[in-house]
Task: structure prediction
Amino acid sequence: MSYGLLIQNINKNLNLSNKELDLVCKYFKPTEIKKREFLLTQGSICKFEGFVLEGCFRIFTIDKKGNENTLYFAAKDWWLMDIDSFMNQIPSNLNMQALEDSKVLLINRQDKMMLYNSIPIVEKLFRIMSQKALVSWQRRLIRNHAFTAKERYFYFIKTYPDISSKLTDKQIAGYLGIRHEFLSKIKKTEK
Result:
């Protein structure tokens, strides 16, 4: 498995030497996940942070009524994590399921701390990554309050065409926070 995409992602945010990049890569373990397999299930402790090389994941919760609520999707060149469970070593509220055969690079908590000690500037990478994730969550929250369901749908398919083309209507509806039947009505109006 190649680390080229991870190196490109790191180079967008940090200026590391080739030796440092090689060391960073040694801490990430390649893993293949088959379509429909779970990388994390609700109730288990998240023992990794991951970077998606190929494929796509759906990160979702299941509420007490059995409804699936999608928080986000992680596709190629995206980071994948449950930061609360990973940092605090508490049971996760999230499920991470591969929507297609996928390849990821995973780093466990102990290796991440060793990486910080080996190359302290790498901590900046994870800070930047966390800030970008927070900005993304904030923008999504604002859209959910300011946009209609129809506007959210069109924003999603326009902004993430590669991801939206891989999803079922039920998965998109779960992400948008609407019922599947309502999404069908929205899609009928676009034709």
